């Protein structure tokens, strides 16, 4: 493009600036390049050329043009700030710092410079410095975007009430951007005020209709409230606005599974697996466990998530082991979002009570969930010092964990909801172990070991796990053998047949695949008078399941939905079931051990992944290997044979009752083996140094 003779230089610069504001980066780049060639000493032409290149994604070329702009116009604060921003985007924080130093030397009170300084401090991991710089910028008349930046850092550092107040003030402005409403929603979510968070998203969407980020956040908040159908619609709307967004696609898949909406789950699952294979970030590792994916694919998904997380955090070296007096107890911390009335607490409380009596260990518990006043929370707090970290910011929690000088830190959640992998990534103990909550590899270098057993991870399969696999000589899952079972009314009062076979499938909706449901329908058709007993969720899911039964030529009335009950009554329900039909590829975990405890056999079909082998491990260690089917046809055949043979069912129940006195239900024995494993892991880590 020949720009000479067209307009004067000022008019040309004005036109290029307008093109940049309109997002016409290619046209702006061409005109800026032509102007700069005509006027090679024009620093502003060089700066606009650099900005156009930046918008085109040519960041390295952009930096070269912006460097030249600062040489041609060394007093141009705009040029120095553009260079600092481009350098920060490439991760060259040293160049960004030197560019900002030059801008500050020109004017130390310039609001935009102070705002950029805040962003650089944030990239350097200096949250306090970022807040100070943003506050200075605001004091000097900084733009609303600076207030938004400050609120974001406040949210990251746990000052959620302050962040919420600042975001709310921004949202009150008639021209508030979608980002302000999104931040307000995230602040409410951090305070577990999910309805308020969803309302903030709705207010933002009323101003910024169709904003994909707000729609996605609204979906997350609906899910937190159990409104899975509403969440699914939010994700669908988000994908309409941003069709390639992997996060929205992955969450829609999980919400569809919760709704038992199987119309597209197989096709969507295949698409998600392909995008994980391609290295795309955005699929939550926990949700991916419900897909028909191989262990190597699950590892790939977790590694991608870990890499994305690590990119947002400063590098953290493995800490030196804390000083230890010879023979002193091993200092062990356990971090979990399940230290309340939760499946995690049901499993591990009796074992921790036994472990707390072991003088070779000194336990500390860190609860990521608030105190619900339950018996389980009180029992856990009686085991060991318990810190309620539910509202403790990441920085403060990390500082506390470091100050406690732990030898071993056990992460129970890993990638499960409520977990804080971003805290573990800061490397707070010389040995960090994952156990119990997440049935798969964490895929990150900050989890050193994974506690398992040789059934859930056969020795030849350890290559699919990023961590060292540490084996217990028993089922990896601890089980409470001292729970009260509340007797319930007869079967008929619960809507069950008095004499027909009752097959139970009490897993959460997302675990029930169309393939396994089809197998259950095959079983019902082959066993007259039988029913499938499911845990109640919500009517939309129930209706879809009835429709699926009808399509399989099974009377929908043969699906019975059990209302959710307190745990003792729930165990009583399981006593009315003849056989628990396990889910696949994500097994029943706590539900499987609950069923065995209540005397109900569990039929499963172990697969290749950790999540698909948990019920099989329980059966294996309980001496009930005949309840582990070889494949799907064998699963159906065994269920049908038992359904047709009352004597065989009675004999199997007697075997299950006998197994209750065995090792699976031995909390004290589990604690001894667990303590020995922790000492061996710690000794191995120390020897490796």
Task: Summarize this entry quickly.
The chain has 30 helices and 12 strands. The protein has 689 residues and is an alpha/beta fold.
What is the strand and helix layout of this fold?
Blueprint: H1 9-21, H2 25-38, H3 43-55, H4 59-72, H5 77-89, H6 93-106, H7 111-123, H8 127-139, H9 144-156, H10 160-171, H11 178-190, H12 194-207, H13 212-224, H14 228-241, H15 246-258, H16 265-277, H17 285-288, H18 295-311, E1 330-336, H19 343-355, E2 361-367, H20 375-383, E3 386-388, H21 394-403, E4 408-411, H22 421-424, E5 431-434, E6 449-452, E7 468-471, E8 502-505, H23 514-526, E9 531-535, H24 539-551, E10 559-562, H25 567-575, E11 579-581, H26 590-598, E12 602-603, H27 614-621, H28 632-644, H29 646-659, H30 667-688
Parallel strand pairs: 1-2, 1-4, 2-3, 4-5, 5-6, 6-7, 8-9, 8-11, 9-10, 11-12
